[in-house]
Structure formats: structure tokens, C-alpha cells
Design a protein that fits this description.
By secondary structure, the chain is α+β, with helices and mostly antiparallel strands. The chain has nine helices and seven strands. Helix 6 (about 145-155) crosses helix 8 and helix 7 (about 155-170) runs antiparallel to helix 8 (about 170-190).
């Protein structure tokens, strides 16, 4: 949490959201103790908040698992976001699918604001089975080409605040990210796209291209992912990178 905004926030709401953010596609069920450990909240406060979240349908306690799981209310809340982007998603999906089919890989569109970057559209080529995330998953900022491309498009003050907070909690990760950002900055200037470094999933290679300007205050990043064993890995600079860059430029022409 950005300390500069702490005085503007409602603490009970912040704590409730901090509980919901403990869940992810890799962490789908959590016990009360795990939530206490992850949030740092006192046990009475946590259970009062989880009871409220369950009442609102945003959490559910699974008797079978003896753990909390995300409630269907969260799915309902995501629908307006996807609907807001539906027209543009439908417009660009055929181009994404064509590139995914050509490469037998996956083309993704991620949209971000502040420190949140989420997958909002994806197209899988025939035969691609290496990596199949779900729409809505949060994308790592430091450990993906998509995340680093996004960080480089943020206003300088937002990126620097993110780096300060990361240095405070994990100096080694911050140093590694600073080096990766330098690489990404050079790639974008020279090639028009930035590369992954096999630092999140060693089974895939990927590149990412951000739109040059935000769309209605949000930053868009397109990425192309293929398995490391694909023969197309020799064609990043000559073919795949230019094609993804062309896709991003075409979308820029549509959204203005």
C-alpha cells in the first residue's frame, strides 16, 4: 500500500480487500490461520471481516476443505469490467487469433492501472498447451515481459514509488528488476518489443509490446508466448516481434 494515500483510505475496507487479495489462481483456498499469517491482521479482526465478506458473497467457507474460497460475488463484480472492454476485445480478437494460429502459441492482452495488471483477453493457437491462464488473472510486474513493459509505460513517479517499496521489502528482487527494466528499455527502443528471461515459467518464451499511450487512463500491453521447444524461437527479431508490433500499432489506430 502506498503510504502517501493511507490517510485517504477507509481502514476497514482496506483490510477487507487485503483478505481478498490473498487469493489467486495458485492460491484458491486458505484457512483462517493462513489468512492471519498473510495479512498480519489480529485474529478477531480477521474473522469479523471474513464473516462480513461471506455474508456479501465475496468469500465462502468450504466445509469440505475447512478453508475459505473466493465467492461467486467476486465473479459478478468482474463482469462489468469485461463488459466495459467487450467492444474493443471483440474487435481485436480476430487479429490476436490469427497471430496465435500462425505461431501455435498464445497472444494475450493485459490491461493495467497503478499496480494492478490483469489479463483481459487471450487467443490460443491450435496445439498450444504449454501455458493456459484464465482471463482475470493478475500478471506479475517484475517477473514477466508483459509486467516490465507495463512498468516502463507508467508515469515515472509511479514506477519509482513501486521500486522504492520493492527495495524496502526485497532488495535482491528490486536489484534484479532494475537490471531487467534496463534490458526491456533497450529492447523497446531498438526492437519495439521487450523479451522474457525465463524468470517466471521456464517452459515458455515471450515478448511484449505496450501501446504508446494509455486508453481511458489504463495501459494496454500485448504479448506473444510460445513454448521454448518451438522452432519459431529463432524468428523473434525477424518475424514474431514485427508481427506483434504491427498488431499493437493496428489497435492504436482503432482506439485513437
Amino acid at each position: 500500500m502506498n503510504s502517501d494515500t493511507d490517510g485517504k483510505l477507509v481502514s476497514a475496507l482496506v483490510r477487507g480487500v487485503s483478505i481478498l487479495r490473498c487469493f489467486s489462481n495458485k492460491c484458491q483456498a486458505l484457512s483462517g490461520k493462513e489468512l492471519v499469517d498473510m495479512t498480519g491482521l489480529p485474529k478477531p479482526t480477521l474473522f469479523r471481516l471474513t464473516e462480513t465478506l461471506c455474508e456479501l458473497g465475496l468469500l465462502r467457507y468450504s466445509e469440505r476443505l475447512s478453508k475459505y474460497v473466493p465467492g461467486l460475488g467476486l465473479l459478478n463484480m468482474s463482469s462489468p469490467v469485461l463488459t466495459r472492454l467487450a467492444a474493443l476485445r471483440q474487435l481485436i480478437r480476430p487479429q490476436m487469433q490469427a497471430l496465435a494460429d500462425l505461431t501455435e502459441g498464445q497472444v494475450q492482452l493485459a490491461v493495467g492501472s497503478r499496480r494492478q495488471l490483469c489479463l483481459v483477453e487471450l487467443a490460443n493457437g491450435m496445439g498450444n498447451s504449454a501455458f493456459r491462464p484464465e482471463v482475470g488473472v493478475q500478471i506479475s510486474l517484475p517477473r514477466t515481459a508483459t509486467g516490465r513493459a507495463y512498468l516502463l509505460k507508467l508515469p515515472d513517479e509511479e514506477r519509482e514509488a513501486y521500486m522504492r517499496d520493492l527495495r524496502a521489502t526485497s532488495p535482491e528482487r528490486a536489484e534484479a528488476l532494475a537490471q531487467r527494466l534496463d534490458d526491456a528499455r533497450r529492447d523497446l527502443a531498438k526492437l519495439g518489443f521487450c523479451r522474457s528471461h525465463l524468470d517466471l515459467n521456464r517452459a515458455i518464451n515471450s515478448i511484449a509490446v505496450p501501446l504508446s499511450e494509455p486508453v481511458d487512463g489504463e495501459y494496454w500491453v500485448f504479448s506473444l508466448t510460445i513454448p521454448v521447444f518451438s522452432p519459431l524461437n529463432e524468428k523473434w527479431d525477424s518475424e514474431l516481434g514485427p508481427r506483434l508490433t504491427e498488431l499493437a500499432h493496428a489497435v492504436e489506430g482503432v482506439v485513437g
